[in-house]
Design the sequence.
């Protein structure tokens, strides 16, 4: 069976023709995996995070939160371009999902008139030449949002509302709408089992975090939950109706197998991340092709998350930072 996302072709670059056999790529990934930071205690014990990065010969542009994202994009692009077309088809839904954040960065840069920063970021992106040209067209940000919506509407009609939502509710609400619309679209796509399981768990995690935030902020209007996860919407709505913040704990346990003592924001979010990490490690062993690749891509994203937290938190007590990091 072929798993395809042809409609996304005009948004992402096609990649190099042919690519390399899967076994060659897997051997390269196994080697590159050893360069990922795993000793976060050593990282935090260094005088500054930048010193530790320098010792790993990875200093330079990534010594800022934005630079960390650029490095992650470069690594994703490297993996994508090494793939033969069959693997690219399997992974396009994942890569386009990750590029949504690049899109959001770009629209914010455009809004601030920071075209140089946008151009630099897009230089590491997997967006197609045509899509990058659209973003760099220098037009009004609202018009650019509308143009982006017209491209994405080939995936799902909901993207056609992007400009209206941007104008009436702001960029953050528009970003949430785009992400949710994309996840709804992916749910109806033909996906490889590993990619489908990843998105299902991602939907579950987002639903739990949405429920948690609504309960913590004591919001009275019920949230919109995404479809496609393994946790029934009725169960989520029941917890919300009971206004039971501690009711989030069994939901986290269902998804991750972990028992957290208190439903604090860090405890809930980090448990959900760890649950995904454990799932993908198992997938990497049981599905050594796509599973191993997805496990590596996720590990790269976890490293980027940790680096971002440390770089944002320079000057923060190191013990406090330890509790934020995923290990």
Sequence:
């Amino acid at each position: 069976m072929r798993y395809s996302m042809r409609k996304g072709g005009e948004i992402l670059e096609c990649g190099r023709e042919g690519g390399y056999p899967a076994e060659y790529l897997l051997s390269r990934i196994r080697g590159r995996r050893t360069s990922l930071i795993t000793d976060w205690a050593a990282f935090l014990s260094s005088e500054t995070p930048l010193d530790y990065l320098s010792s790993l010969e990875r200093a330079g542009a990534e010594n800022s939160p934005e630079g960390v994202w650029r490095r992650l994009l470069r690594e994703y692009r490297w993996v994508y371009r090494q793939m033969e077309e069959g693997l690219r088809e399997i992974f396009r839904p994942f890569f386009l999902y990750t590029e949504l954040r690049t899109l959001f960065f770009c629209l914010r840069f455009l809004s601030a008139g920071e075209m140089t920063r946008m151009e630099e970021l897009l230089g590491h992106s997997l967006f197609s030449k045509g899509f990058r040209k659209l973003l760099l067209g220098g037009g009004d940000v609202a018009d650019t949002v509308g143009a982006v919506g017209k491209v994405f509407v080939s995936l799902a009609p909901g993207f056609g509302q992007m400009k209206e939502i941007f104008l009436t509710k702001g960029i953050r609400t528009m970003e949430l709408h785009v992400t949710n619309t994309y996840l709804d679209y992916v749910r109806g796509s033909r996906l490889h089992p590993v990619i489908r399981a990843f998105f299902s768990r991602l939907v579950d995690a987002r639903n739990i975090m949405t429920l948690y935030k609504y309960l913590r902020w004591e919001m009275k209007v019920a949230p919109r939950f995404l479809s496609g996860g393994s946790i029934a919407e009725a169960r989520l709505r029941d917890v919300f109706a009971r206004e039971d913040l501690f009711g989030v704990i069994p939901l986290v346990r269902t998804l991750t197998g972990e028992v957290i003592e208190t439903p604090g924001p860090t405890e809930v979010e980090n448990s959900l991340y760890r649950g995904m990490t454990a799932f993908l490690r198992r997938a990497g062993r049981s599905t050594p092709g796509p599973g191993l690749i997805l496990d590596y891509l996720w590990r790269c994203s976890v490293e980027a998350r940790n680096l971002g937290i440390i770089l944002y938190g320079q000057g923060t007590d190191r013990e406090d930072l330890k509790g934020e990091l995923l290990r």
Remarks:
- The chain is about 65% helix and 0% strand.
- Residues 192-287 form a domain with the V-type ATP synthase subunit C fold fold (CATH 1.20.1690).
